[in-house]
Amino acid sequence: MKPWRFIYSGLCDPYTNMAIDEAILLNYSSGRVLPTLRIYGWNPPAFSIGYSQKAEEVLDLERCKKEGVLFVRRITGGGIIFHHLEVTYSLTCFKQEINAFGSVKDGFKIICSFLLNTYKKLGLIPHFAIDIKPPALGKSPFCFSSYEDYDIMVGGKKIGGNAQKRKRDLIFQHGSIPLELKTDIFMPYLRNKIDGLEEKVCSLTEALGREITFEELADTIKKSFKETFSIDLIEQGLIPEEEKLALKLKKEKYATDDWNLKR
């Protein structure tokens, strides 16, 4: 299996994060770069909403604007997420480069196996939701408070969330792993309040019973990815074409009301 590129982006604003992910996807699909695993964080903290969600239905837009809370629309589906104290990953590849054959659901199971191994490396006992059949959480506009078959559970609670976009054999997936969940910070900006969230979801700090740094989790994800898929990761930055495209996408797409509001 050919090597992958590894990019560590550090902390970026929400528009830059989504623009970089798409710039990688477009350059990879054009054959300019290796399949890529990227790890990044968010500064300032911000919401991302799923592609099909309407911002005005899930967020108090007036309060967000008044208090300077940013939000961005993703190219993937799923529910709204507040990105704060967390590590986010994204991966871009063709399905044969990660052996993610079969249905989309099969692909989720294969790809998310590196997350299972990440949690195991940290001493946790994770399971796919389908394997333990926890009580139904019901549908929710908030990503972390509902689950799919191959979401990951620790101690009976969902941890993190993942979303995927496919075009034929091309796969783009990204996911969020919360180091801490400070519900009092983001809950006031949601249009509909969520009851009992602490009983449904957990952060990594809660699951471990200790604090964990961004760097420790990022390094564990990287090691787990290499071992799970027997892949060599080559540390590189964005190529000039990606940097130029990311700036263009940020300015003309992700930082605009046309993209974030008028869908």
TrEMBL record:
<protein>
    <submittedName>
        <fullName>Octanoyltransferase</fullName>
    </submittedName>
</protein>
<dbReference type="InterPro" id="IPR045864">
    <property type="entry name" value="aa-tRNA-synth_II/BPL/LPL"/>
</dbReference>
<keyword id="KW-0808">Transferase</keyword>
<dbReference type="InterPro" id="IPR050664">
    <property type="entry name" value="Octanoyltrans_LipM/LipL"/>
</dbReference>
<dbReference type="GO" id="GO:0016740">
    <property type="term" value="F:transferase activity"/>
</dbReference>
<dbReference type="Pfam" id="PF21948">
    <property type="entry name" value="LplA-B_cat"/>
</dbReference>
<dbReference type="InterPro" id="IPR004143">
    <property type="entry name" value="BPL_LPL_catalytic"/>
</dbReference>
